[in-house]
């Protein structure tokens, strides 16, 4: 069930605009932009492959984002409320 919610949230976000100009918000085909950080003012933007959406470790981050923000993300895109080093650890584990 969490996978379905995460995929639906990502689909909504990918289809929508993140705010600002199109050039800043676009991600290459097959990727999506996520904003990572615990502070509202200090979010770092990352581009990740959409294949990460199928990974249990990444899904845990999506669940945390859903619990904190629901589907109304303050940055206009997918915001993951975790320390940046945690996000980097998760993505490096997914990469192998």
TrEMBL record:
InterPro entries to which the protein is assigned, alphabetical: SAUR_fam
A Pfam family of this chain: Auxin_inducible
Record keywords, A-Z: Developmental protein, Growth regulation
Domain of life of the native organism: Eukaryota
Family: Belongs to the ARG7 family.
Protein name: Auxin-responsive protein SAUR21-like
Species this protein is from: Camelina sativa (False flax)
Gene name linked to the record: LOC104744480
